Amino acid sequence: MIELEGVPELVDPVMIAAFEGWNDAGDAASSAVAHLDGVWKGEVFAALDAEDYYDFQVNRPTVWLDGGVRKITWPTTRLSVVRVGGDKPRDLVLVRGIEPSMRWRSFCNEILGFAHELGVEMVVVLGALLGDTPHTRPVPVSGVTSDPDLARTMDLEETRYEGPTGIVGILQEACTHAGVPAVSLWAAVPHYVSQPPNPKATLALLNRLEDLIDLRIPLGELAEDARAWQLGVDQLAAEDSEVAEYVQTLEEARDTADLPEASGEAIAREFERYLRRRDGGPGPGPGPGQATAGGHATEADGSYLRDTSSGRTRPPKPPRTDEPGEETPEE
Description:
Order of helices and strands: EHEHEEEEHEEHEHEHHHHEE
Structural class: alpha/beta
């Protein structure tokens, strides 16, 4: 039995989790949970025992100085609570950590124990994978679940994935077997610009999360960071004709595939999101996938498109669809 002290009774709590590592391309998912924790000033109430789940030769502890005193931070998973006010108050339980090295079943059972004690109504796990998607287009975000009823009621895809999986897929299945509604949201990160951070993918995950749990999330400077990121990658791609040609090929493929999505229903969803943001505060600027006029590219880190082994900027070969973490959400 997990005993929680100092945690108040929660209002309609939803658990939102993300894990660094295999399921976190561009650190997009873990950054999204970190953003939620920062904007709502989350209070950590629990941390899993690092000895139980982590190989310290894989995820090494770090040493730091606190007023001249040496201290150690161990890799682990922490849980915090954020209280969201407004017309429809709701509490969030944030789970943020590193994908465990071992004892995944025990790890998931411990997370579910906290969910049970806190009265969590649904678990949302965020992930990011590498895919053949151009950085110039809106980030694709798919919502999947193993629960057929949940798929119908929340307009989600029922997962059909078969193959290697990570802790995101294992936790979702553990929730399903425990009778806890669970959803995974996956952002596709361009494989040729996979280095973190990727604020555009983080923003896309948060926008999709808003729609899923009907909660307005303050975005702060994240939208501007996403635009600056895209402009920086644009500049780097323009410096190399091979990269520019490759990006154009991805754009054409994406635009052709997205033609059926230009429906009245899709347009209505985007307009509703705009109205929600306008009513809750200043209207948004151009979306992360929209072109900006008159903007100037900020200085970008050259590692975005750089092959660190050769020092050249070249588009890598398209990822194989049978490699883990790519193209299809691993559930």
